[in-house]
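General statements about sequence and structure are easier to judge against a single worked case. No coordinates are needed to read the tokens, only the vocabulary itself. The sequence in question and its structure tokens are set out directly beneath this paragraph.
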Amino acid sequence: MTNTDFDFLTGSWDSRQRRLTKVLAGSDEWYEFDATLECQVLLDGNGVFDVLRAPERDMEGLTLRLYDPEEKVWRIWWASKNSGGQLDVPVVGRFEDGVGVFECDDTWEGTPIRVRYRWSTQDSEHPRWEQAFSTDGGETWEVNWVATFTRRA
């Protein structure tokens, strides 16, 4: 069975990344940087692999997404060159009405958190991704990383 949820992300992208300077510290100070993303959709759409690079921040990371057709959910793993050869705990979720929401329990600097990734694809020329953390089980969220994408010609 072919899955088309992440077809919008196939190809080469330029991205503007915006991150909170201090996470879970009540900060509203952000920094911004440019990045590129190369994305492949594989396994009849049930596997997605991308590489994010931001040389000015000495940042390189990869994302692996796998769809479970029985559960009808995606599992999304992230790893960066600073993650010690480990994949992060996968966020799990699905798309509804052009918005993908994926969550998991994890820790941030020793604090138990709920992690949420959110993909907005309504503007297919400029999809948007954000990461948010919650320390109260998802009652309130702090968005700490936002990325907007523009397809390369």
Notes: The first strand starts at residue 11 and ends at 20. The chain is about 0% helix and 60% strand.
